[in-house]
Amino acid sequence: xxxxxxxxxxxxxxxxxxxxxxxxxxxxxxxxxxxxxxxxxxxxxxxxxxxxxxxxxxxxxxxxxxxxxxxxxxxxxxxxxxxxxxxxxxxx
Length: 92
Description:
This protein is of the alpha+beta class.
């Protein structure tokens, strides 16, 4: 009976550890999310290369807050991505 309890605890610990490691792999591993931390305001450009060797250029316009976003996002060209300076992650 005691060996069954130890086995049950080992299974539960393994499941919790697996969930935690899965979270780390998904959040820190490679994926389809580009992390960009804006360091300034104004125009910027992201240049990145995909696994198949294609280089992409993404124009970015960094603004201070959402009020400025509401004023500017319709006036900028369609190929320019508007990013609020406090945001940490940009999905492309």
